[in-house]
Fold:
Amino acid sequence: MKKEWWHNKVAYQIYPKSFYDSNGDGIGDIPGIIQRLDYLQYLGADIIWISPIYRSPLADQGYDISDYYQIDPRFGTMEDMDRLLAEAKKRRMYILMDLVVNHCSDEHEWFQKAMADPEGEYGGFFYLADKADGRPCNWRSYFGGSVWEPLPGTDKQYLHMFHKKQPDLNWENPKLRQEIYKNINWWLEKGIAGFRLDAIINIKKALPMADYPADRPDGLVNPGEMLKHADGIGDFLKEMRDETFKRHHAFTVGEVFNDKPGEIQAFIGEDGYFSSMFDFNETVIGGSPKGWYDSRPVTAEDYKNGCFDAQEKIGQTGFYSNIIENHDEPRGVSHYLPKGQVCDAAKKMLAGLYFMLRGLPFIYQGQEIGMENVDFQSIGQIDDISTLEEYQVALEAGLTEKEALEAIKGYSRDNARTPMQWSGRPHAGFTDGTPWLKENPNYGAINVKEQAGRKGSVLEFYRSLIALRKDPRYEDSLIYGACIPYLRGQKNLMAYFRMGETQKLLIMGNFQEHPQNVELLGNYKKVLINNMDFLEAKGKEIRLAGWQYLILDMGEH
Ligand code: TEU
Ligand code: CA
Structure:
């Protein structure tokens, strides 16, 4: 395995709008990020992925870009951006930007020019069809409704896989692709370390566009079905890699849903299209094609098998980027731990179990202090377009307003988008103004100030995980070692070896509130991590307390 600079690093995702507001307008900003770099250094984060801060109408919170070369004034200026890059560099931190190129904003000049002259050059940057021909296909947008929208002032209609203010860019058009590559190189030449690639599998559509069997009474079909029939994305990804990333030795991590069997080697193997891709195997557990309202809770066994199946799929081919949450997901501790049992011990156990899997761990802002879902009391408290759509889907399925809110609020993206909880000061110390989205009322109990330096806090536990993972003595096992499940059949026990050339560590978590015994194959040399201040062990038999988590050094193998 060719060693890369990022293999032993730890990554952190910032959702800038909610991270830290430096000027009291209630919106997080780049100067706010700069003011918090020392905190990120204290945590031990090396790679920092910043969700979009480009000029945008924020129809999808910045994932609808109207100028790829400008910073949106709400977040700051290009000078702020240059300062951030310089300050990060001083701290040996690497900045990733979000590459959102499946679509742009309908306020982008390309789309404005396409509206003015659909038959002209910029009309070819999008997927347009004559309105008179009717709807070209029955695909559903990720945000509900048909993917087809009338092109204002014309006899055309345009495709949008996401929001109607996010027209899809036509990647079949080489001129469009060259414009994208020019922008990627421009940002890399500015000194960013690479990109997170947004919805990247969506850039290749199944052509010619056709209907697929409807999966709901609306007669539409979810985009994933269409993607199953979309072949040839590798041509685009290879060209993009060769024209941009490779030239700058950039780090790239793909937001890859719907990958096909056998693609992983080409995607993230040696000389792959990307450096890494997120493991989303756990995030889709319990989902339903009918909508969020029909999803079911994730059990400990679901989570364990989701992780192990993903690890089995990738083996030693490359490195996944491992998460328990991000800006699109509910808070991991609320999603993967049983309702009513979300205690600090369980939060630390979940942290340790995902963090030591083979791959690059990403921490999402607030995850490191154990931030939890919001107990939304009304749909009026929710901003997220995806949640508002799923609420309608639940109502259309016959749920009452109360039932619909209860059924979907646990999956809302806004659970992860409330202000970062810095302290017990008003608005969690996020802003001196009024936050754009109300803070989680539990910030008095869960915040950075209360946890930093406090022995036994979730934050200090994350710092101990990060320190161990970066300890060169354990590179053989924790960075390059194989991930081998242990006692996989033992209910609510998630245990796995990290097996290096010579080193063998055993990571285990008792994923339930009741104690259980674990039979070891041999004696352990040393306890490297324990989320509790006791350990009941007799010879090769360990009695794990509820939610207890251990990392044992099993010596050489
Ligand atoms: O999300 C992409 C995305 O959500 C789909 O690719 C995914 O398959 C779908 O949600 C099913 O789970 C990215 C961003 O992370 C998200 O915030 C944006 O809203 C979206 O793209 C559009 O840019
Ligand atoms: Ca601000």
Summary: The pocket of 1-O-alpha-D-glucopyranosyl-D-fructose (ligand 1) is lined by residues 60, 63, 100, 142, 162, 198-199, 255, 257, 327-328 (CB under 6 Å).
